[in-house]
Amino acid sequence: MENKTLTTGAKALEVNLDAVRYGTFAEIGAGQEVVRWFFRVGGAAGTISKSISAYDMQVSDAIYGKTPRYVSRERLEAMLEREHDLNLERLNAQRGDTTAFFAFANTVSARNYHGTNECHGWLGIRFQTEPHAAPSEIIVHVRMLDYENAIQQEALGIIGVNLIYGAFYLSHNPDLLVKSLLDNLTTDRIEVDMVDFHGDAFLHVDNRVISLRLVQLGLSGAAMFSADGQVLQPSEHLRKKNVLVERGRFRPVTHVNIDMLDSARRQFEAESGADPDETISIMEITMHNLRDDNDSVDLEDFISRADVLEATGHTVMISDYPEYFRLASYLARYTNRRIGMIMGARSLIELFNDQYYTTLHGGILEAFGRLFKNNVKLYIYPYKDAVTNTLFKVDNLRVDAKQKYLYEYLKQGEHIEQIDAFNEHYLEIFSPDVFNMIHRNQPGWEKLVPTVVAEKIKAQQLFGYKPED
Question: Which top-level group of life is the source organism from (predicted)?
């Protein structure tokens, strides 16, 4: 039944009346808010094999093993594995032929008494689609945005029911499942910044597309995945790291994109003296750069970009933050270390165009105050004027006359840095030109992109590439 308007109680009751579903609820950190719905609506005896809350850390460790962080994916997966295995061990012989077992778990940090903690949680379900089937799994990370502990608990209970219902009845339609996670909730209350599907029920699912959907549907402002396509949770991946991010279309990745990131990273690390392992490099694509003229997203085009970024070995972020100051605020939410943003000199000129900040009460000054307040620095890659052959860098850029004093102030304050070591031969490469060459099967485009990218484009026939007969 694919009815997104069902109430939370109606969803819980439908699960309870499903004679095939039977399993365990294990909840830590905000009360047993999810299982409470199933008890409340009646018929829970046909669904719940066990309900458990192990609040004491020593008790939790004794059941699930020790872990460095209790509100973490590692702890959640230990809970799911343990509880699902126990269901099979204890119940499979008796009722395995007629039962699809499941284990639901969450580990949550709800608002504390002083309101000083990060309010977030991990939820997951490991489940059989039918009796004796291999288990499939859905892992979700949420940020709880309500200001009161009791209201956060209520929201947690609702999204938990949505997840369980979605796993049982919407697993064939992951897009609808993801959208249904916020049924009877709003994005003002819950942000879903990671969803990960695994198992036989989801062999057709590309988790990179699911990451895109989270941002596209407004469930999260940004989502991340690794070079090998694994979805990442920002607070765990960026925690205690220096972050260097390059924004682009990457359609396709060219020598310029790689030179920008590599050159900036060498300078970034030299300035901080940090261990390279303490720095995360991110290639970021905004939704604005993914949408076409009809405001829709071409999934084939998105996957092509994701595939070539994967070939370069970089972490990828999709965001709905067209303004740089919003991106900076997002990153600063997860790390208190240095943040570097790489941009071309042309983009820097655009950054000083005050027409982009008319919605802010403080205009461009407010925007720049937000941008640079969190230990942020801009690293600027030059461009060469094709007509005059002039190389434009930080020192000779011409920003709007009204902003020249602001520009000088930021330069003097070392908030804007010129990338010194760059390859001038790459300055004549433009991604749209390369894309057109690939699409039209014009020779020579392979020299304009990294070898691994050219190989990926040819092997998978990306961006309209067609091999010669």
Answer: Bacteria
Angle subtended by helix axes 299-312 and 451-460, to nearest 10: 140
d(CA 302, CA 298): 6
The pTM for the full model equals: 0.91
Scored b (16 or more CB within 10 A) or e, 280-307 reads bbbbbbbbebbeeeeeebeeeebbbbbb
Q: Which whole-number Å values give the CA distances from 464 to 39, 161, 304, 392, 461, in the listed order?
A: 54, 43, 10, 34, 6
- 3: nearest Cα among 231, 260, 184, 273: 184
Nearest to 145 by CA among 118, 116, 179, 171: 118
| Rounded Cα–Cα distance for residues 431 and 428 (Å) | 10
What's 167's DSSP letter? Answer: H
Q: Cβ distance 210 to 230 under 8 Å?
A: no
How far apart (Å, rounded) are the C-alpha atoms in residues 130 and 148? Answer: 39
Query: In whole angstroms, what is the distance from residue 270 CA to residue 415 CA?
Result: 16
* Those residues with Cβ within 8 angstroms of residue 67's Cβ, 6 or more apart along the chain or in another chain: 61, 74, 75, 78
Question: Is the distance from CB of 318 to CB of 211 less than 8 angstroms?
Answer: yes
Residue reference for tokens 């860098």: 393
Here the contacts of 297-306 (C-beta below 8 Å, separation 24 or greater) are: 297/212, 297/216, 299/209, 299/212, 301/251, 301/463, 302/208, 302/209, 302/212, 303/206, 303/208, 303/209, 304/251, 304/252, 304/460, 304/462, 304/463, 305/249, 305/250, 305/251, 305/252, 306/208, 306/225, 306/229
Give the residue carrying structure tokens 């091999």.
467
Residues of the chain with pLDDT under 50: 1-2
Dihedral (CA of 355, 319, 375, 342) sign: negative
**Angstrom distance (rounded) from CA 288 to CA 136:** 34
Task: Give the domains, in start order, of the chain with CATH numbers.
Answer: 8-205 (3.90.950.20), 236-461 (3.40.50.620)
* CA distance readout (Å), 6 to 1, 9, 98: 10, 8, 27
| Torsion over CA: 75, 79, 80, 81 (sign) | positive
Q: What is the pLDDT of residue 68?
A: 84
Cα–Cα nearest to 102, from 145, 163, 144: 163
Average pLDDT, the chain: 92
pLDDT of amino acid 4:
53
Instruction: Say how far apart CA 150 and CA 36 lie, in whole Å.
Output: 14
Maximum Cα–Cα distance for the chain, whole Å?
82
Instruction: For strands 120-127 and 100-109, give the pairing.
Output: antiparallel
